[in-house]
Amino acid sequence: MNTLPLPRPSFKAQMHQAREDAIVEAASRLLGEKGFETMTVDEVAAHAGIAKASLYKHFAGKDDLCAAAMVHVVERLQRVMDGLPAELTALQRLQALLRWSLHRQLTEEVPLLPGRSSALAQALRDCDAYQAAMRQVHVRIRGWVVQAQAEGALRRDLPPEVILCALLARSADPMLYMLRDLGHADERIIDWVMDICLSGLTPGPVALAG
Amino acid sequence: MNTLPLPRPSFKAQMHQAREDAIVEAASRLLGEKGFETMTVDEVAAHAGIAKASLYKHFAGKDDLCAAAMVHVVERLQRVMDGLPAELTALQRLQALLRWSLHRQLTEEVPLLPGRSSALAQALRDCDAYQAAMRQVHVRIRGWVVQAQAEGALRRDLPPEVILCALLARSADPMLYMLRDLGHADERIIDWVMDICLSGLTPGPVALAG
DNA sequence: GTCTATACAGAGATAGAC
DNA sequence: GTCTATCTCTGTATAGAC
Q1: Which helix (H) or strand (E) is A53 found in, with range?
Q2: What is the CATH number of the domain that holds B139?
Q3: B51 touches strand C (CB under 7 A)
Q4: What would the pLDDT profile of B95-120 be if each residue is shown by its tens digit?
Q5: Which segments of chain A have a pLDDT < 50?
Q6: Contact criterion met (CB < 8 Å) for A162 and B116
Q7: In chain B, how many domains are there?
Q8: Contact A202 B154 (CB under 8 A)
Q9: Chain B residues within 8 A of A92 when measuring between CB atoms
Q10: CA of A138: how far to CAs of A163, A164, B197, in Å?
């Protein structure tokens, strides 16, 4: 692509970027802990250590701010995908992704998916950067799903899109919190959810009732 | 002698109850469509056809109102459980319940489970009526799970509580909305989700990566 | 118990000095 | 660009007449 040497960012620009990152990180944290509707811009500013008015010099509004936080999350996911060892099979890659997203959810970080009836969902539909990043991720994961199906590691009677949804939806599965409320340890919860997601609840090939 | 027409002492009470039911129904509808944080008491009053101040004569506040709506939902679930044909196996009962809750979710009705970071979750923890009803439902469904395990219809290597959580969590599974956004028909979505929940994503016994 | 009108609080967003 | 102080709107809850 662009092989031109990038101009060294000025000190001021670095400061600017660093502060913006701090804001986004604070927003991500609160978004994960409290959700879009419950969190407030005041809290974000307080956690970032700046005044609210300064925050509005960086972001147009709450929607904008949280959309940026969500883009941040997707970019982290992309880096995780990039960092997977080359020798892994397609299924192993998908398992690693699943484990990563479940772990995220249990540590109260931003979920990959916005809540169904959250105003954030609408804001994200209008955010081109988020849509583009998310499309990339989908295409890439879908490729792994198809490959895993070809290798016989995933069911071939399900459309790849459906499997893709089933995997991504785990990152917002309420089952994790229900199990945590019962007092189970995080790692055990993750193992159960992954196991059930992949193998199901029935012992063998299920005999569906007519 | 008393020539007055037969007294109908419960008439006023009936009116009272009918109005209260209308309020709860409106609250349920909006709770399902928009979620606890986004919906407003004004909207509920408008949908119920009364003034907001009148609503506050029936319920102490928004929390109270929505808790009542949630209790209403659990009671409907209990009636569904009561109405299941006696000749069904335990697994078939669980499948029927699963199908019912998935159908509910797709028709934008109140989900059985509150969102993770919703203020409603806290309100429900403080609501004895909800807690009691929910405990009853849990115990009953858990019984069916144990029975299905004994019949070999559900995996025995998972604790019943875990399977119970896995089933209940489907009623708030974001997968349904993802598939709907892809343009699939409701019935097909439900079939896929039930199938994947019970049989998993892998073809046979899964070979976990070491 | 139901209404109209209003008090009160919280949160998003902005003004204007520095 | 950052701050303090303020505006404005929305939404919960209540007062008081009938």
Answers
A1: helix A52-58
A2: 1.10.357
A3: yes
A4: 999 999 999 999 988 889 998 889 99
A5: 206-210
A6: no
A7: 1
A8: yes
A9: 209
A10: 11, 8, 22
